[in-house]
Amino acid sequence: MKPVEKFLEVHSQLTRRFFIGIGTVGLASLAARRAAVRADEFAPELIESVSKLESFMTPLDKFNDVSRGSPVPHSLTDEKRIEAGLTRETWRLDVISDPDHPAKIGHPLTMANDTALDFKGLMTLADTCAVRFSKTMTCLNIGCPLGTGVWEGVPLRDVVWKTKPTENLRRLFYYGFHNNEPKQMFRSSLPIGRVLEDPGDIPPVILCYKLNGQWLSPERGGPVRIVVPEAYGFKSIKWLTHLVLTNLAVANDTYIDGNNDVDSPLKTFAATLSMPKEVDSNRSIPVTGYAQVGISGLSKVQVSVCLKGTEPPDDPMFLTAD
């Protein structure tokens, strides 16, 4: 099955359980969006194509997975996950200063000193500062979204402040469980300014523990992962175990070795889901698609129709086309 076909199939399988799970407010919001365009406003040729489209929200068991590791952490036995600290009862988070580029902090949180943040402590923070937002998780190197859901967690800055930082703090990098093999470590990083403040109306970076109202599963990076609202998936590290406060001025993400722009926010793009191979003359042409809306926003999607071989030259955006 092609990625686009799989994407379309996933998004045509919303269940009653999902609508119950997102609650009345979420349901009303989705219903309002669907009511904005009535079925009888479509051309007859388009009704069948549109009937196959559903909400952009993805059921939990339909998210695509690009997890790393050998073995992949979510494939560990229950016993091994307990041993690795990958259950809510055993999870601990070290928040420390970078030994190579130290930031000055007054209260590191470490397992060695029995001060590491545990899940109970995270839930105590959640009592007063939990946030939720919808986000499409998408990979830098994959052309289709992995899934869209409502992510819930505690702002990352609330945990950073618990270490009482005072100076020489320019960046934060973080990583998760990697089978205790340094070569398997996958880490990402953020400028400390993005951690402590939120640009525009973008939600905060969070320590995430729920997706669509359910505890984060091991497949989705549970018990706790990072979620960066405006970024590609490699910034949202799974199976989180360490936050490192550093005076390093540049990114040190794992992906930086792959010739990637590791601080780039999500890009806006549109792609086709369905289009007929043959159409009778003088009839409407049903075309459906989706758009990933990045930080630049989206005002419209344009379609141009022309005879094969008559495409405007050097005009990939169809700026000179009808």
Give an account of the 3D structure.
The structure is a single chain. The protein is an alpha+beta fold and 322 residues long. The chain has a 5-stranded mixed sheet. Strands 4, 5, 9, 10 and 11 form a 5-stranded antiparallel sheet that branches. The protein has a two-stranded antiparallel sheet with strand order 2-6. About 8% of the residues have low confidence.
Short summary:
Helix content is 20%, strand content 21%. With 322 residues, it is of the alpha+beta class. It folds into 2 domains: 3-57 and 267-292, no CATH class; 60-258, Sulfite Oxidase, Chain A, domain 2, CATH 3.90.420.10.
Which keywords apply here?
322 residues; alpha+beta; Sulfite Oxidase, Chain A, domain 2; 2 domains; 5-stranded mixed β-sheet; 5-stranded antiparallel β-sheet; 7 helices
Beta strand %:
15-25%
Give the radius of gyration.
Answer: 22 Å
CATH class assignment of the largest domain: Alpha Beta
Distance between the termini: 34 Å
Spatial strand sequence of the major β-sheet: 3-1-12-7-8
H/E order of the elements?
Answer: HHHHEEEHEEHEEEHEEEEEE
Q: What would the principal axes of the Cα set say about the shape?
A: elongated
Under CATH, the homologous superfamily of the largest domain reads Oxidoreductase, molybdopterin-binding domain
What is the fold named in CATH at topology level of the largest domain?
Sulfite Oxidase, Chain A, domain 2
Taking all residues together, what is the mean pLDDT?
Answer: 85
Task: Please describe the topology of this protein.
Blueprint: H1 3-10, H2 16-35, H3 44-51, H4 78-84, E1 92-97, E2 104-105, E3 117-118, H5 119-129, E4 131-137, E5 147-155, H6 156-161, E6 165-167, E7 171-176, E8 187-191, H7 192-196, E9 206-211, E10 214-215, E11 225-227, E12 240-246, E13 269-274, E14 288-292
Parallel strand pairs: 1-12
Antiparallel strand pairs: 1-3, 2-6, 4-5, 5-9, 7-8, 7-12, 9-10, 9-11, 13-14
